[in-house]
Amino acid sequence: MSSPPPESQIVVHHLADSRSQRILWLLEELELSYEIKKYERTQQRRAPNELYDIHPLGKSPVITDGDLTIAESGAIVEYLLEKYGTEKNKVKVGTPEWQDNLYFTHYAEGSVQPLLVRKLMFTMIPENAPVLMQPVLHAVFHKLNSKLTDPELQLHATLIEKHLQKIKDTADTKDWFAGGEHPTSADFMMSFTLEVFVRRSPEHVGPLIKAYVKRLQSRPAYKRAVEKGGQSLYLLEDS
User: Fold this and answer.
1) Residues 166 and 116 occupy one common structural domain
2) Last residue of some domain: 43, 66, 89?
3) CA distances, 157 to each of 100, 108, 118, 176, 219 (Å)
4) Residue 229 lies in a domain
């Protein structure tokens, strides 16, 4: 019988429709008690100034655990799994599964998310320009996305789809990025990235990516995270 996780004093500084959704999901999977402090975006969809009181960059997610303050999704995921995680959410070091887990844990924010942010910014710039400039800027940035961003996103979508197919081919019960029966750090990191991918660039993603997002959003722990954190723009229908 496994021992209960250590007591926590975790506070999640949660910004709506942000990377902090993956942290709430992780905490629910670990069955930890925690407090949520919610922050609403401005009319320009930016984080509010109150977050600067928590961290100098004014970003989310940020957690506090006692006297410790941690920012950056990857650092938070690693910290929570290292301190509070159980064996089912970890992967044996040195195995092929560990290599996949390590790669996709860092791949989410290191490779895919910057492209999705670029596509979003190229969409937002014309919309926030003076009205007379918008038609020209829409044409310019649409071409930039189609020539620069979309081909790269398609490459990444193909890579992810092939990896999910590899996992599917091993066993029906192994649904997660490290090839196991339970989500690991790779899944907690890839979750928000793929939710954004499906929402922002549905023309690129394949059926296995969509099925993966739907599967993670159907988990009881994920649903509890949404109930506590608030509805997300990135929820798929019927999840």
Assistant:
1) yes
2) 89
3) 16, 12, 16, 16, 23
4) no
